[in-house]
Design brief:
The protein has eight helices and twelve strands. It is α/β, with parallel strands linked by helices and 250 residues long. The protein starts with 8 loop residues before the first strand and ends in a 16-residue tail after the last strand. It is elongated and about 55 Å long. It folds into two domains: 9-119, Tetrapyrrole methylase, N-terminal domain (Cobalt-precorrin-4 Transmethylase, domain 1), CATH 3.40.1010.10; 124-234, 2-Layer Sandwich (Methyltransferase, Cobalt-precorrin-4 Transmethylase, Domain 2). A five-stranded parallel sheet has the order 3-2-4-1-5, with helices on both faces. Strands 6-9-12-10-11 form a five-stranded mixed sheet. A hairpin with a 2-residue loop joins strand 7 and strand 8.
Length: 250
């Protein structure tokens, strides 16, 4: 049993894309101090292994198109433990402010009068682009970067397709595997070339990472090959690197 404290607080933090080396020092410190860690399913076992021995780990079970705990129940659990004096860490995959329902959980904490702090994390788009040897922005290519979702509460998510279809546009599409054909159709309707480069990065930064190069024409078929969580990078292709540093040399 975890010892209760006189006053609880909540840290809402990003666990990064999965590689524990990509955790921030601040998040690692909070993992060692937390009494209760409420974590998403996508937080990797390697990251969870860094929790302090006193921590109670509770999976909140949010997966795309699979069994998921209702958001209101997650918020209630966060409030429940904090009100009883525990130091609570709400640990989300990637960055908590990107498609992580951070605002809803902060609203619940504010309503209960509970103190909180947000710690950002490395998002999957950054890790995926790094694995390709690509920059998410590049002078002369794209003056903006769009982080979009393939799905929202209403279903397949509409976007500014005209902007995304322009030559040189770069976007990271989260939760896009099942939306790939929809994205392809919308972009082509707005004039995007079928030869537009794209890449599907599965399990970005993890030991089982898989990089699949595609074009807009082949995107639905390539995206369907990914079994784990994946981010689609529209407008980017893997760099053909002749020389790569081995991990042991770093």
């Amino acid at each position: 049993m975890v010892a209760q404290r006189e006053q609880g607080g909540v840290i809402l933090a990003g666990a990064g894309p999965g590689d524990p080396d990509l955790l921030t020092v601040a998040v690692l410190r909070e993992m060692s101090r937390a009494d209760v860690i409420l974590h998403d399913t996508l937080v990797s076992p390697e990251v969870l292994a860094l929790a302090g021995p006193q921590a109670r780990l509770i999976e909140t079970g949010k997966t795309g198109f699979g069994p998921s705990m209702k958001q209101e129940n997650i918020s209630e659990m966060i409030v429940f433990f904090a009100q009883r004096g525990y130091r609570v860490l709400r640990l989300k995959s990637g960055d908590p402010g990107l498609f992580g329902r951070l605002g809803e959980e902060l609203d619940a904490l504010d309503a209960a009068g509970i103190a909180w702090r947000v710690l950002p994390g490395i998002t999957a788009a950054s890790a995926a682009a790094a694995s390709l040897g690509q920059s998410l922005t590049e002078r002369g290519r794209n003056r903006e970067l769009r982080l979009i979702t393939g799905h929202d509460a209403q279903g397949l998510a509409e976007q500014d397709w005209a902007a995304l279809a322009r030559p040189g546009a770069v976007a990271a599409i989260y939760m896009g595997k099942r939306a790939a054909r929809f994205v392809q159709g919308r972009l082509m309707m707005h004039g995007a070339s079928p030869a537009t480069p794209a890449c599907v990065v599965e399990n970005a930064s993890r030991a089982d990472q898989a990089i699949r190069a595609a074009t807009l024409a082949t995107l639905p078929q390539i995206a369907a090959e990914a079994k784990g969580p994946a981010v689609i990078l529209l407008g980017l292709a893997p760099r053909d690197a002749r020389i790569a540093l081995k991990e042991a040399a770093l």
